[in-house]
Records
---
Amino acid sequence: MPAAPYRHRVTIQAVTLIFDGMGGWEETWADLATVWARVEALKGEEYFAAAQMQNSVSHRVTMRYRADLTPTHRLVFEGRILDIEAVLPDERKSRLVIMCTEQV
């Protein structure tokens, strides 16, 4: 797929554990990669169809295929946090469609 449809910069983050200095661990998010993607807010019937999968799915993000992306990651788009609900690769493994929920 040509690069033109991917016009948004999205940062992929993974949760990491850091030592808190008091004998415990604290979860924090670390950047893994910043990639080009297409971010679409779901509207109308798309939103209601997505609601069958997860009643709070609000965005669809499309990007080039990555084998390392899972629902345990999250995306940051223009300072907004998108929790990943589902990662759906196409048959040729050339792109991913990611269903997300925006944190409010």
Note: The first helix runs from residue 44 to 51.
---
Amino acid sequence: MRLSFLQFRDLSYSEQAAYFSAHRTYLARRYTAGFTVHLYYLGSFFCEEWICQTQNELRLLRPFTGTEQLLPYTELVHLPSL
């Protein structure tokens, strides 16, 4: 069963992590201030996975629905002239 953003947000952290692992679709990666940030799509919303670069461990799952949070990833897309 796919969860909505609000249903996901209301889960405990361990429940979020389990759902995230089972239902994620990888989209992109970026780097910022000591973190590797992976972007995933979970059916009706996006979720960032923040990994600490020095300790190589998950520090944060950050779900969102808006497109403003996708702006850092647009810099990573390069389309050839058509």
Note: The chain has a mean pLDDT of 91.
---
Amino acid sequence: MSATESRHKVSDLVDAFVGLRIEDPLRITVSDVDIDCHVHDIDRTNDRFTLLLETFSGDYLRVETQWARGWLDPQVDRLKPVAEERQPLGELQGIELT
């Protein structure tokens, strides 16, 4: 895949973030695994976009991307609130409203 195709794909993922609202049901794909969840919180600035998602098993996932002359690949972390840690899960491959 060329750099142009990669940026286009990332741009499409970030474009999907824009219309999301709290409680929207989603299915995301990370490391070839589909995860059903809903939007718990959204944090937007000019150069950063962060989604906090809650899975149906009660886990929280953070999806984050930054602007650096183009949107960077959105990364997904599983948050562990008890230990105040995060576990990187990988790059976001897909996102869709369910």
Note: Helices lie at 3-18.
---
Amino acid sequence: MTIHIKRLSDGGMSADAELPPAQRAVKKPIPLEVRRMPEAFTVETLEGTMQGKAGDWLITGVDGEVYPCDADIFARTYEVVG
């Protein structure tokens, strides 16, 4: 059986089955290679081709995977350390 989950406009979720209780977690402090891109770009990711805007970040993950990150999300989620 596959549970179908949908995000609601109020930020909540709706599911067609009961979900397990939510837990809290924080990202581990794993250094990643990041590049702030000066212009729009496309990148081949594990999920397919994705687009980034000028000012977005290109992140190389712990296994060498690459993906774009919106500048606003990056600012809320990451801190550049060097």
Note: The longest strand covers residues 41-45.
